[in-house]
């Protein structure tokens, strides 16, 4: 067979195989036997091996898994992947509907789309000219991880669309129950730990560095939204129909209703039917159908105002409470945890449950040996909700909270009429360990490779006694530890080094200042700019920040007044940890910039800048970077090989500039570029 014949045959095989994938994995209506399918795939792989120049990334042969990765690259979401607000009963749904109608300014019933809330891993997929080019996890909502190669192994996900659209589509990757049971059976035979539930199994599969492992896990995916500024449809329901027509797997159990009461009836029907499916769901999602209304409703800081997730009532189970253990958190709060006889609950095996604090134990009259009702709060955190006093045998024993810290022996106290008991010893090893775990976490300093187990190991071996010690670890002492190979150690040290470049707000949040969450940390960093300015700021200056109250301001002031904090900050600074805010401060916005208040789209490959650098430059000058071209777009910056976005800009008459012009406009043309 010559090259021309091979090209034609490869194209025929790819089209046939993808068509069969669609009928088998999307429509669940196979059109050929497994044997026939395997023969076609075998022929395709053989031809691509004989003519390697004809192999393309979107070939169905690439679904078997490619070369293992060293690490996942970070992906900046053009549009944030926000969480949904929750509803737990009918009244919550009616209140949501009332807020929607008030914001829109109408008494007329609103049209809603109701969908099953798939219990899996949220992902974002980018298509260019109808071809799948990148897939990412949700991550923290702003930045995810590039799992493109793993997502390609999901046969229900089209690598090539039926039309050459360029857009972003989002969905939920999941593991069907049969695949989950099969996977755990194999792991049990091999003596490996079992996955707790299909959601964890799906997330673990897609975060494997070896795509071949993901390919073996029989994952699937439902797509549920289109993202962009200039979509070819005017409603969510129309978007779902479009996705179906393009070959995407869209959940068939969705319905459209006008008015909230029909929505409530539909939601109630699925509360009873949730376990009849071949995959897990943990609720329903209700969205305003009209995109125009969605735009009018907008977003809060964390959630869209036009959508809500109804959470199914938590499943409950009865088991025996055998013991109560107490744990010391990073702020010194002592939290009791129930130790239970193992019980199955919402698809997981539960052996421990939260008791929150001493008052809960007293209020519920909990005794050791009691039969208790356990439920999952929001299907996530198990908690003890009730004692079955009628099942007592007389052998139950009362429980007394400890008077001294189980970690350091210091006397426990109650502060400011708080419910929780606290250890106020700043050198308490439990607080130090928990504080370091918080410091390295994703939303704080994001030091990959150092999780709870590694922090515990380092702490127990005496290598770290404060967060600053992380920056003074050396390769030799880490290599001497168990389960620490050269590659693991190098990755950890590289992640620590990388974290030095984080902006100030991450460091502030990571330090664990009481009452200072992510949002407050960013507000403080924006206002004061540097650690020194914040450290020396009077309480009145801190309180003057909008959304920062007296409680937070006094906590910040007390924190920086502690001598040990000054020592820690000095050591961090000496180690090279950044102490300045890297983002745009309100007073620094260049109102005279040609990008101030403008919407800008980047397309193609830039020669001197990365996309991230260009975006930061635009945002630092008061502009906003969008992922798609629309009539609202002010400028398009086009690099080499600019595609459909450039074409659309020209069609709409949007001004297009090249990279050199962009640099001249922002006054960077004299910079010495590599």
Please indicate the percent range of residues in DSSP E strands (runs of 2 or more).
Answer: 15-25%
Counting structural domains, the number is 6
- CATH secondary-structure class of the largest domain: Alpha Beta
Main sheet attributes: strand count, strand direction, barrel closure? 7 strands, antiparallel
Q: Tell me the number of strands.
A: 24
Q: Report the CATH superfamily of the largest domain.
A: DNA ligase/mRNA capping enzyme
Pairing-aware structural class of the strands and helices? Answer: alpha+beta
Low-confidence stretches: 669-674
What would you report as the Rg, rounded to the nearest angstrom?
Answer: 28 Å
Describe the structure.
The protein has 24 helices and 24 strands. By secondary structure, the chain is α+β, with helices and mostly antiparallel strands. The protein folds into six domains: 3-16 and 29-58, no CATH class; 85-311, DNA ligase/mRNA capping enzyme (D-amino Acid Aminotransferase, Chain A, domain 1, 2-Layer Sandwich), CATH 3.30.470; 316-401, Nucleic acid-binding proteins (OB fold (Dihydrolipoamide Acetyltransferase, E2P), Beta Barrel), CATH 2.40.50.140; 429-499, 5' to 3' exonuclease, C-terminal subdomain (DNA polymerase, domain 1, Orthogonal Bundle), CATH 1.10.150; 504-574, DNA polymerase, domain 1 (Orthogonal Bundle), CATH 1.10.150; 589-665, BRCT domain (Rossmann fold, 3-Layer(aba) Sandwich). Strands 12, 13, 14, 16, 17, 19 and 20 form a seven-stranded antiparallel sheet that branches. The longest helix has 24 residues, at 3-26. It is globular, with a radius of gyration of 28 Å. Residues 669-674 have low confidence and may be disordered.
